[in-house]
Amino acid sequence: MLGQPSGGGESSPRDDAVRLLARREHSRRELAERLAAKGHAPERIAECLDELAEQGLQSDARFAESFLRSRILRGQGPLKIRLELERRGLGREEIRHAFAESEQAGEGDWFALACAALARRFTGPGDTPRECARRERFLAQRGFDFEQVRHALEHAWDSAPD
């Protein structure tokens, strides 16, 4: 009976969606894609997702906040996070709201985050142009913008722990 519907039949879209949401937050688009991959009919998926949203079991806003927080903890920058949220089906307004909430909670100091990520990865600013470029690429690939990269290159090792 573990995870299987009673009676040996196929699971409903709701059963599958709730199972997925029990593990972590998902965006509406992610759930729709996962449920479609399990062979559920598009109209039943839409119906199910509407019900889950009405009941507060699925929320794109909650997903965005959770996703943003987890990516900040991984040391990723705002450009990469925004792109990933868009890819997962969130609109610009939902993304803007999640970033505003994060900033209000004191979680989105991108300059400090870029410094911390750089200092964790490298012991110093680098002695050659090639080493400096490597540090710039590292931060750019993590999703930091030009100003954040420049700031980190200048300040990442200012207050190195003893």
From TrEMBL:
Recorded hits in Pfam families, A to Z, give: RecX_HTH1 (PF21982), RecX_HTH2 (PF02631), RecX_HTH3 (PF21981)
Which keywords annotate this record?
Cytoplasm
Q: Which residues form the RecX third three-helical domain?
A: 109-153
Any idea where the RecX second three-helical domain is?
59-98
Does the keyword Cytoplasm feature in the UniProt annotation? yes
Q: Which InterPro entries match?
A: RecX_HTH_1st (IPR053926), RecX_HTH_2nd (IPR053924), RecX_HTH_3rd (IPR053925), Regulatory_RecX (IPR003783), WH-like_DNA-bd_sf (IPR036388)
Subcellular location per the Swiss-Prot or TrEMBL entry: Cytoplasm
Q: Which residues form the RecX first three-helical domain?
A: 14-52
Q: Does the keyword Cytoplasm apply?
A: yes
First and last residue of the signal peptide? none
Annotated function: Modulates RecA activity.
Q: What family is this protein classified in? A: Belongs to the RecX family.
HAMAP family with a match to the protein in the record: RecX (MF_01114)
This protein's name: Regulatory protein RecX
The record lists the organism as: Halomonas gemina
Organism taxonomic ancestry: Bacteria, Pseudomonadati, Pseudomonadota, Gammaproteobacteria, Oceanospirillales
Gene name, please? recX
